[in-house]
Amino acid sequence: MRRVDQILAGYAEGDAVSGIAVVIRDVLRRMGSSSEIFSDPERTAADRVAAGDWRPLGEYDGGRDDVLIYHYSSESPATDVFLGTRARRILVYHNITPAEWYRGYDDRIAGELAEARSRLPAAAGAADAVWAVSDYNAGELRRMTGVGEVRVWPPPLDTARLDVAPDAAEVEKLAGGLVNFLFVGRLVPNKCVEDLILAFAWYTRAINPHARLVLAGSGKAVPRYTAMLRMLAGELKLENVCFERFVSPSGLAACYRRARVFVTASRHEGYCLPLLEAMYAGVPVIARAAGGMPEAVGSAGILVDDFEAEELAVVMDKAARDGDLRRALLASGKARIAAETGRDLEKELGSLLAPFGVV
């Protein structure tokens, strides 16, 4: 078996790309391959440093008989490592958020995203194979780079991370007879969390005041955007908008345990694994029909196009209270998850890596 390593722009608990890399590494090791994850130390979170399950990007030194997988989602020194390696190269495109979402909130990040998009053609052109995590991403990649063949490999759901006991304190905190609407994800501009807050405000004033909006995700990436969300909730006098920040796996399990409905109004997603996490937890999902989210949802949730706040509020109410609709959503979600958890990841990766002699 050849050595198959992965490089990331950054590595952190709860980050979707990091989680996918861990699953791939573990599958490769089960297949008998030597496999490590390399990351930029400046973008590796303390939890991963403590865990010791990674190596600094500067230590990577693959040879001609090795394979290097690069998870491309932002600009970082990993791009130069990928372009300079002697190993055979695979680029996995997770999508790059368009820079305009960040301008005015964080121009430094906007610049990094613009740079990442400008360097994508070179990275894709240097790759011996190109994968994408959704058809949406594959189409965007073809348009931006001119690359012809792109293999689509939907990201695997890490059920082991979800099969933990819910944090008892968090479960109790989210009790109290309120209808809990849950969003999971970083608080960043392309997620359009303000649309959720506006819809929730309309819901509590016109439909049901006994409700709670739980926002489970770090707000550290773009502090100005998080501050805007808090100001909006304050101006609307919404006492039950809960900014949970980053939550541990047990805290996340508690959020799913107490959630009545999962809802996201994001306008730009390459795929969106939290939709599948919610289904796995038995929570109906509502998502904007944007980016790769229709592929993640399939026929197992409610997809909405552009909407006014009151329109989303009505959909949220239907998903929370309509018994027939909820039963249909839960049944379709269960079927979606059965298909997802029934995937043979070793067979899938083996097929993708066959041209590289890794099987």
What would your notes on this structure say?
This protein has 359 residues and is α/β, with parallel strands linked by helices. The chain folds into two domains: 4-156 and 343-356, Rossmann fold; 160-341, Glycogen Phosphorylase B (Rossmann fold), CATH 3.40.50. The chain is 44% helix and 16% strand. The protein contains 15 helices and 13 strands. Helix 2 (46-51) links the parallel strand 2 (37-39) and strand 3. The longest helix is centred in the N-terminal third of the chain and has 20 residues, at 107-126. It is globular. It starts with a strand and ends in a 6-residue tail after the last helix. 45% of the residues are buried.
Task: Tell me, rounded to a whole number, the average pLDDT.
Answer: 94
The helix tally amounts to 15
Question: What is the makeup of the main sheet?
Answer: 7 strands, parallel
Distance separating the two termini: 7 Å
Rg for CA atoms: 21 Å
Number of strands: 13
Helix content: 40-55%
Q: Return the CATH class of the largest domain.
A: Alpha Beta
Estimate nothing, just give the exact number of structural domains.
2
Q: In CATH terms, what is the fold-level topology of the largest domain?
A: Rossmann fold
- Placed side by side, the strands forming the largest sheet appear as 3-2-1-4-5-6-7
Oligomer description = single chain
pLDDT under 50 segments (min length 5)?
Answer: none
CATH architecture of the largest domain: 3-Layer(aba) Sandwich
**How large is the share of residues in beta strands?**
15-25%
